[in-house]
Specification:
The chain is mainly α. The protein is built from three helices and no strands. The protein has one domain. The longest helix is centred in the last third of the chain and has 48 residues, at 49-96. It comes from Thiopseudomonas denitrificans. It is found in: Cytoplasm, Cytosol. Keywords: Bacterial flagellum biogenesis, Chaperone, Cytoplasm.
Length: 98
């Protein structure tokens, strides 16, 4: 297995682990590394096309999962912000009657 394919696999694995841990900072860093690994793999004439296709499909599947997870996290945080705003409004009303 050539070095570019190995790098793609390692980056994929690390990104998957970061996603499972919900380590969003690591996901951001690994996303950049993944993009660089993809660029290198595409530029390497020694990378077997079949292997590259399989790795790209695996990355595509992982990124779909990542987008779904990020959307869910975004909705969760938005819900928390709404609750926080409602609590602030209630606290202001309560202070008016003190």
């Amino acid at each position: 297995m050539n070095a570019t394919v190995l790098q793609l696999e390692q980056t994929h694995s690390a990104l998957q682990d970061a996603l499972q841990r919900c380590d969003w900072e690591a996901v951001g860093t690994l996303d950049l590394q993944c993009r660089q690994a993809v660029d290198q793999a595409l530029a390497d004439p020694h990378t077997p096309v079949e292997v590259l296709r399989d790795r790209m499909q695996a990355l595509l599947d992982l990124y779909r999962e990542l987008v779904d997870s990020c959307s869910g996290e975004q909705q969760r945080i938005a819900g928390e912000l709404v609750q926080l705003q409602q609590s602030k409004k209630r606290a202001k009303v309560y202070q008016l009657f003190e």
